[in-house]
Design brief:
Oligomer: single chain
CATH architecture: Beta Barrel
Number of strands: 39
Distance between the termini: 58 Å
CATH topology: Maltoporin, Chain A
Helix content: under 10%
CATH class: Mainly Beta
Structural class: mainly beta
Number of helices: 7
Radius of gyration: 27 Å
Largest sheet: 22 strands, antiparallel, barrel
Shape: globular
Amino acid sequence: MKGSRLFALSVLALAVSQAVYAEVGTLPEVTVTSTTIDDRFDSKRGEASNVNNISGKKVDEEHGKNIVDVLESIPGVTAEVQSGDSVKIMLRGVEAQRYMGEKPGVAIVIDGVPVQERTGRVNIDLDNIESIKVIKGGASYLFGEDALSGAVIITTKRGAKMAGLTASTEGGSFRYRKGLVRAGFSKGDWVGHVQTTNRQTLGYHDQGGSFADYLNGKLQYLIDDTSDIAFGFEQSKRAKDSHGTVKGVTQAWLDPRSFSGGKDYARNYDVGLDKMNVTYAKDFGEGGNLLVNTYLFEDHTFSWSNPSGFLRNIPGCGNGAVIVIAACNMTNLNDAYVNGGDTMQIQKGLKAEWRKGGEQVGVMAGLDVQGFSDRAVNVNLVDYTARGTAVSVANPLNRAGTVTADSRSTSDTRALYGEFKWQATAPLTVTLNARYDDISAGFESFIPLTAAQRAEGRTLTGQKRFRVMSERAGLNYALAPDREVYANISTGFRVPTVSQLFGGTITPTGAVAPNPALTPEKSWNQEIGLRAKSELLGMALDMDVALFQLDRNNFILNTGGQYQTAPGATLANALEQYQNIGGVRNRGLEFGLKTDTGRSLSVDVAYTYLDARFTRNDSYWMAMGSRTVPLPSVLYNNTGNVVPRTSRHKLNLSTRYRPVAGWTITAEANAQSGIFADEVNQVWVGGRTLFNLMANYELKSERGVKWSLFGRVDNLFDRFYYSTIRGGSDGDGNGVYNAEDMSITVDPGRVLTAGLSIVF
């Protein structure tokens, strides 16, 4: 905090000293390009933060199966693929230690809408991307809650270039199939298109299949020469199973497809997503602009969860008798699960931004109003008991169809934000940002409580209000027309969840003590960087290098350990409680180099050095031994440990070669150093290097029809490696914690994809 104030004061002092020598009337016009709504302001000139842009054309040319294939070209970006199009995006190693569906610490914004999907992952239609913008460092000064490490802003396709008819098809390994049809028009003041896409695959892993149907489009009306209004929509239907994990390194080698790897806790997802948004834009001339965006998102998800227990009321399993056959144990049955989840998330809101440029000063003011609700219902899918003994008071029979949970969580946000941009001298630009968020979080359960539950302190409702300020102070100094230094301090924040605030008091049986005094997590990002354009042997170079340090000193941890249950914990004794007791520091270097893609040979480089360590994590309990007795737990002090699943070195090298007209050959190398798989830093996984190869051929006929064919090979040399590895307990219950306790997903290995597209 003190450092940020000193930095801000230093910025202002430098700016004032420079301004003394500035001649009135000689300064260039200032334009504010920061926005949370649109991508029409994409200049980096004068920008005080590390920013990367990817065009929709590049996204299309990658022919990737998910957004990870595209984001690999940006330093500091990592991502975890679950299945299908579902991806958890992380920046600068923040939140790499979490893997159970928590928020990623990155604001994901699509067409101005902050996407909040239940699992912390996002599902993105790669065929409907106009541009991607990545802002690194705390970004809550623009985007509000959860922008701890930055933001990924996606704008969907639009404009007259969508006119005409496009059809494409793809196929590949594991029965991957994709088909796309798009029709667009541009006539007078109206521009629009509609697109439908189907993706499906059986997947590499057992029960790893998925499919997705997308229908989306945009209609834009040019009101006059200075204003327009656009309506966008998307309707998607997705279904995916979730499997592929195995227990331990031996099983990963023997059974990489996880045919005998046990069962995932949750699977069989069926998701329906509806999105609508309307954006109005008005240019006033002389740097003046107004943007207004309103939206409605609905996410309806069904899923199975909790595969543990013993079936009743089926042949051989009985109702009241002791179970003695393995066929009644749900752990041994692929499709036997206890809970059927039915959730409905609704997001709606409005954003408005006004900006004004000028000779020396530019300003932007914004309003952000959000409403979010999550209705969750759990129903028993089967008749079951928790144990295989006779039905009794201690082992009750749970009936299929019984509603076991019915609740609604809400979050309402009212925020004001703005930017002040000052051209102190011709080379020096000073930027100050601030955002004020007023957030009300609430919870309500619709399952009545018993008298005994009320006596324990359980409740049906909870409410908490947070008021948070976020800031950025930065500068940009132009050393030359094609070279500039930038520096900033920025912040991000995340408010506690209702489950962290109220613990087990809002559940029928939970043992986590409430802590309504929790404060929002906050991140402080400091960075300094250099952007430059130059030439080497006649080849244009575009370089960006940044040094950064990102600190979080109050992140929320459970005193009973991560993903563990403390023996003997109750609401009264508070052995488990969420507290602001965690600290972590992520520091490193990011280097990006791009060359002119119009030449016959071009190269892109993205390198990241990252040192991510816990500065406080001294209350970490790990379960050891058999699960049939009260769990013995061991206390670890992880302070100073490396954050799990963060590589110290990561390199992406992409080379494009055009031997003759129409042909493009792309070779890519992805390398990363080893990682720890766990917070206690006992299980180490070595690094790996992967190679990808793609060939693309384009031909345009005399009638204007454009043909495009491609072939792509991922993991060209079929390298065996783990796409995910996680550890947090003695998984096999033998009292020894080692690599055989890891939860591992093995990468599919070499994957082939080919496709054809036609544009009329």
